[in-house]
Records
---
Amino acid sequence: MKDSLLFIWVEGGSDARFFDSIIRPMFEKFYHRVEVRTYANLKREKFIKILESLRVIRADYIIAADIDTEPCVTAKKQYVRMKLQDIETDKVQVVIKEIESWYLAGLDDSSQKEMGLPFLKATDDITKEKFIELVPEKFDSRIDFMMEILKYFSPVVARSKNHSFDYFMAKYRLPAG
């Protein structure tokens, strides 16, 4: 696979920062080139054409989507497939609940304490709103806080605290250490 190309499509900027910093380096062990791109601001028709082009050139791709209001992973994958027509459902990876839950999952007990966070044993139920409530006052913004989390992030810890992150890592056989 080292001569191939992988595109990881994510919803927005916070997703892109996470995937670019944490996930892309892991995939670079298996692919010649890994690109992280956002799709939230693309028109649906344009995104569909891009995905068709990737299939033609036989590039791999993953579409990461938050579960949002869908009741389960299957429903979210069906929703994405309906929106993007011919997409293969195994190309869609669902983040539960939102990317903010993956950020927090990677903090061990000492990192949480150092950053001024409460002890979080699991992060599967973290939404953007809950995340914002947890941002300590010492940070200028949510983005500033996210950037700081990335400095401490441990994939090993994240696998034990978030089921969808663990599933993602296992599915793609990504090295956590």
Note: The longest helix spans residues 13-27.
---
Amino acid sequence: MTNVPQKRPAFEPASELLRATTFDPDMKRPLSTVAGAFLVFLRVLTGVVWIAAIAFDFPSVVRDIDVSFDDVVTTPQLAEATLIVVLSVVGAFLLLDAILALLILRGLNWPRVIVMSFAAISIATSFLQWWDDEEDIRITTTLLGLGLDILILLALSSRSAAAYARRNERR
């Protein structure tokens, strides 16, 4: 016999994966939860930078907008109103994302699930846009957001983050 340590299997049995988390209200906040919330804040920061970049170049962005419907003529006022509505909606989503990050740090489970769901939808959307040849994934387009979404999904879906978020549940 050799003194080679026993390796972990490449897969874990379903019974191990489905084992209920333990009731531990005094559990310390794991690093994966902190990292996940930090990444959500980074995603908010990238959104704020995007909004600021558009706001500083507002006249040329308004000039480039083409809001065309069947019988509607694009006017500068319509383009400006459309841009303001879009930036307001994006700003509201960024505020919601920041609030969800704070709630994740507090240890609640439902904001963690919502953020992971949005990240999965964003990843799938980026893939579908790439697959349809509409959009290349580049550093100047979707690479930063896509990378953040993947890292958020990895951090918040870890066992330690799930156990922390569900630490107060009695089974």
Note: The chain has a mean pLDDT of 84.
